[in-house]
Amino acid sequence: MSAVIDPHHAGHGLTDHHHGPAxxxxxxxxxxxxxxxxxxxxxxxxxxxxxGGSMAMVIRAELFQPGLQIVQPEFFNQxxxxxxxxxxxxxxxxxxxxLANWMVPMMIGAPDMALPRMNNFSFWLLPASFGLLxxxxxxxxxxxxxxWTFYAPLSTTYAPESVTFFIFAIHLLGISSIMGAINVxxxxxxxxxxxxxxxxxxLFVWTWLITGFxxxxxxxxxxxxVTMMLMDIHFGTSFFSAAxxxxxxxxxxxxxxxxxxxxxxxxxPAFGAVSSIxxxxxxxxxxxxTSMVYATASIAFLSFIVxxxxxxxxxxxxxxxxxxxxxxxxxxxxxxxxVFNWASTMWQGSMxxxxxxxxxxxxxxxxxxxxxxxxxxxxxxxxxxxxxTYFVVAHFHYVLxxxxxxxxxxxxxxxxxxxxxxxxxxxxxxxHFWMSFVGMNLAFFPMHFVGLAGMPRRIxxxxxxxxxxxxxxxxxxxxxxxxxxxxxxxxxxCIRGGTPAAAKPWDGAEGLEWxxxxxxxxxxxxxxxxMATLEAHRTDPRHD
Amino acid sequence: xxxxxxxxxxVLRLCVLVVAMFGFGFALVPIYxxxxxxxxxxxxxxxxxxxxxxQDAERQVRVQFLATNAADxxxxxxxxxxxxxxxxxxxxxxxxxxxxxxxxxxxxxxxxSVAPSKAAAYFHKTECFCFTQQVLQPGERIEMPVRxxxxxxxxxxxxxxxxxxxxxxxxARKPPVAQATP
Lengths: 544, 182
Prior knowledge:
CATH topology of chain A: Cytochrome C Oxidase, Chain A
Helix content of chain B: 10-25%
Radius of gyration of chain B: 23 Å
Structural class of chain B: alpha+beta
CATH topology of the largest domain in chain B: Ctag/Cox11 (Pfam 04442)
Shape of chain A: globular
CATH superfamily of the largest domain in chain B: Ctag/Cox11
Protein name (chain B): Cytochrome c oxidase assembly protein CtaG
Keywords (chain B): Copper, Membrane, Signal-anchor, Transmembrane, Transmembrane helix
Largest interface: A-B, 47 and 40 residues
Largest sheet of chain A: none
CATH class of the largest domain in chain B: Mainly Beta
Function (chain B): Exerts its effect at some terminal stage of cytochrome c oxidase synthesis, probably by being involved in the insertion of the copper B into subunit I.
Distance between the termini of chain A: 33 Å
Structural class of chain A: mainly alpha
Strand content of chain A: under 5%
Organism (chain B): Pseudomonas cuatrocienegasensis
Subcellular location (chain B): Cell inner membrane
Helix content of chain A: 55-70%
Oligomer: heterodimer
Order of helices and strands of chain A: HHHHHHHHHHHHHHHHHH
């Protein structure tokens, strides 16, 4: 019954099952345990969150007042670029892979991930990748300065020398993501406990299954895209160089064919997590489980046919603008289904507002605001006004910060008792939430206004008339940034001690992960739980 | 163990998908070119046009010319006239002049683009210096013709269109051959 493919390791899970983890540093280097790897992913992601966050602090410090005072424009460009790359690929994506590693096997009653050794490799590629990426900042000519979207020819003809390191870093993290996704998909499709049918899976598992397929479909396209850049720069091809018959606009098509599904990769697992958390604290089963599954699948499908809405201003024909405009607006339908389902789940529930629930409720409200500004941007004629302004920055920070990142915080607080065996400090958790909530809104809400008034993004200086809003934004950003150190403290405090957590610390929580003790033993479900256990613990989110 | 075999088969399939999508990324290049041709996207014009049209003496279209140097290109480059008025269907010629002020032989490539982009499919070049590369010796000046026909089917709302050339220095990519020693 072992999940390990390698025949030498067959049965490993059974024989090894009484042993705890190995001792010392090599435990982490060599581990194939999904919980260890999940932990490493989460810590790595948090480290990257702080690094990318400190770059955001540099950006906001420079934008605190008009004029140039702290950094030079060249360095400012490197900061905006690296902030985006690190947050997208280093913080948000690995955090979700970490959550998947920890929770997916425990939610479906599997002993481990389907491919434990590959799991180890896909994690350890990440430090290598980001080491390479961050090292470019110390190279002559500086790091990537062409924006996280690295449009050609900025990233080819006019790029700093270090661009090759950037390309290899993207290759490495792409390989890591693809392997991680294959692993999650194989685990979900092949290692479910008997009786755990697809439509009984918790939504976090469902959203990750769909995310896994999205990753497998688009990360190779990104790899192809940077490979073409590499060839243009070093091997004399002209994929993106007009001089040799190529086309820079082609770059944008290839990039956004990856880039748009990518934004759903960063939000779907958060959808799944809050779909577990909201029912737990509303003490009601999730409203509309089946429609949630179909809505997630529809969003994933639609994400492949809307990419050109990022490119309304490059000169696509009118019919193209209309198609991409309507296709984009169509995404509001399944997303609306989800938002209404969450609201209906809370409706008349016996709600309590522990930290995970606070983050989840804020997620629903603030993500919806981000969705509305997305609808505004989807209107092709209006987009000509909003394009490349701070309105876009406000939009995607509203879907990524209170969307993806609040989803991750909610998940962390929700499952911390299971991971550590202790309850976190609820007072500090609430403080973290309120500081993040206020800081985040102060930072990003004024960006809507300066964007509509025409402040361009990615520029270190701005017109005097934007000064007040920018100062408010910066104060909010500093507040949000500093608060994350409180989160670090809360997590460390929770690991080191606290009220012991029960196997199921939340009354309304459902799912197999709550049937194992807290902290979860090193090996769980070495023998799969049987159907009777499943039913007894009411894992079917649709139960009556 | 059947579970292992199942996993192996699934992983193999997923790997095939990964390779296929990597290939698809590259397949987007020809797909993009075909789409641009088919829908006249992006102001891309087709290659040499073979064919003749009867001119439409009723209608007049203004054709404007633009010449731009790409970054780091030092030649002087421009059309002999900024604008001509033509009848659709009629074959018209315009001369562009390029001059190499440096003391080195250089190769250049001009890339055309037509605006508005929906007119691109109706702008036919029967002869163009952009179909080949230009090699200019130090101090050499050259007159380069483009001969074109504006299609009779040009949408009625297009009254003027712009033919823009961007001149790129491709000396590094295609070094000027043989004649280098005068």
